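Dear colleagues,

As part of the handover before I leave the project, I'm documenting each prediction I ran so the next person doesn't have to rerun anything. This entry is a single chain, and its sequence is reproduced below.
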Amino acid sequence: MIDDARGLLARSTHGTLSTLDPDTGHPYASLVAIAPTPAGEVVLLLSTLAVHTTNLTADPRSSILVRAEPRPDETPLQAPRLSLVGQTRRLDEPGPARELFLEAHPDAAAYVDFADFSFFVMRPERLRFVAGFGRMGWFDGPDWLTPA
């Protein structure tokens, strides 16, 4: 099942990022562009103008939900989905993360160098994969993360 979860993440270009609002402590969810790394981490390009970036700066605990599009005979709840739970931190030196992200999102070249944008990486600590009815499970970060 872990291979199916890895495949879903590898095919994903967008996800729902959930962060914690420092004022209320409530979760805040937003749609973001993602670029999965071969090791199983997730690269994001975020603006300081975005609420989720402010939240991550205050508390890096976060989660990202990715999902497969349902087949014509499925409802969205029947399609596979993966929740990654961990910490998302700003990269001081984006290095290969920049190329990886721009390969997945060529349109980002128009704003990648704007002063308010920075690269972040989410390092999963726990993951929940739902492959379908009765097919689900948790993975721990050390079992998930592979050498790059």
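The mean pLDDT is 94. The chain has one domain: 2-144.

All the best with the project,
I.
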